[in-house]
Design a protein that fits this description.
This protein is an alpha+beta fold. Helices cover 21% and strands 34% of the residues. The protein has helices at 4-8, 78-86, 95-110, and strands spanning 31-33, 43-53, 60-70, 74-76, 114-124, 127-135. A hairpin with a 2-residue loop joins strand 5 (114-124) and strand 6. The model has no long low-confidence stretch (mean pLDDT 90).
Length: 143
């Protein structure tokens, strides 16, 4: 069971807070203790309504993100993850950069054993783009 101290550190869960961060730098990824740190298991988070802005045209980009990780000592609290992902809504960035930024930020917050962030972006100009970033880096990995 989570400790009272661990639960008190979660500032968004259980509150009616609904002000979204203006950008990812302002967002706070909250975590809680993994109750089974000695067990290797996967957590999968499906985020079908991700959006951002094309840095060239300013047009909206939408994507389905899938975040999979084997937790170490910490797990991500999903309301804070929702707010963090929503903070990209008005951010101009290339899709490849977004997926890698999300991976970097989650790895920094969680120190997972393994993590994969996959962004399946809606077609633009007749081309559908999927970017997948992994931790630890999978040098030499072929799709």
């Amino acid at each position: 069971m989570p400790t009272r101290e661990d639960l008190q550190k979660l500032s968004l869960l259980g509150t009616s807070e609904n002000r979204l961060p203006a950008n990812p730098d302002e967002a706070q990824l909250e975590t809680f203790a993994n109750q089974r740190p000695n067990r290797r298991y996967w957590i999968t988070l499906n985020c079908p309504e991700f959006s951002s802005l094309c840095p060239v045209t300013g047009q909206p980009d939408s994507a389905r993100l899938v975040i999979r990780y084997v937790p170490g000592e910490r797990c991500v609290e999903t309301k804070s993850l929702k707010f963090y992902l929503a903070s990209f809504r008005n951010q101009p960035a290339f899709n490849e950069e977004i997926v890698n930024r999300i991976l970097d930020d989650l790895v920094a917050a969680l120190a997972p054993v393994e993590m994969i962030v996959r962004g399946e972006f809606a077609p633009r100009g007749g081309i559908q783009l999927t970017t997948e970033a992994t931790f630890p880096d999978a040098a030499g990995l072929t799709p």
